Amino acid sequence: MADKTIQWHSLIHRGAVLNKNKYRLRASSCPNIYRVSMTTLTKDDDEPWYSGLIKFVSLFDEFHYLLMSASTVLLFAWFMTPYFYLVDHMTASGYEEHEASLVLSAIGVANTLGMIFFGWAGDQTWTNVTKTYGVCMILCGACCSAIFLATANYTLLNIFAVLYGVFLASSFSFTPIVLVELLPLETFTKAYGLQLMCQGIGHLGGPPFAALLADLTGTWSYSFHLAGVWIVISGLLMLIIPYTKNRKLIGTGPVEKELANE
């Protein structure tokens, strides 16, 4: 009698198992990148109601992912300060509104071109993405403060605005790459979704606080300099990752990447 054993990772076995009601994927635009894993399958009836929430936030238990999440919250809380308030600051400093709009446009154009460049650079073997990301954030924060300091010189102001947009672009290009380096591919969807949540948390708190600070002090100086400081701290948090070992913060055991390699 012929041996009809089906290999575990074969397409036939995966297709047969995933087509069962118990093992249907919840949702994925690219289901073939998933392995047969309980992280992507429907919840068993005997699991407690809070098990899904625990699995959802479980990645925050990893040291490196928590560092990246904290960096993301800080960055997205403060990088919008020039986007939102640069025009108000420049018009208050005596510039025409169209001059301020041109500086803002320069940031946007530089940011777009920067995404293309860093997207290409991140795919090169000579690029250490995490270190480059951290350094770019530090330079981005420095440029944010420099934008305010260079207000009196329109040419210098445009230069720092362009550099700010370029360095900021590294966040959008490098975030998916860093996630893939830190975590196995099976957890990418959840990991990236949590990063989007962190971005939203940052957006909710940062810009309103920057505006409140300007109202209380009567100047945009504190808002721009504070934004620069926190963006630099965001970059420093990212630079900790390549120089430390990833580990669980609560309890012991291997991290997700080690489990996938096993």
From TrEMBL:
Q: Which compartments is it annotated to reside in?
A: Membrane
| Broad class of the protein's primary localization | membrane
Keywords for this entry? Answer: Membrane, Transmembrane, Transmembrane helix
The keyword Transmembrane helix belongs to this UniProt entry's keyword annotation: yes
Identify the GO cellular component terms for this protein.
membrane
Q: This protein is called what?
A: Major facilitator superfamily (MFS) profile domain-containing protein
| Molecular function GO labels | monocarboxylic acid transmembrane transporter activity
Q: Domain Major facilitator superfamily (MFS) profile spans what residues?
A: 57-262
Q: Where are the transmembrane segments?
A: 63-80, 100-120, 132-150, 156-180, 220-241
Native species of this protein? Tenebrio molitor
Q: How does it sit in the membrane?
A: Multi-pass membrane protein
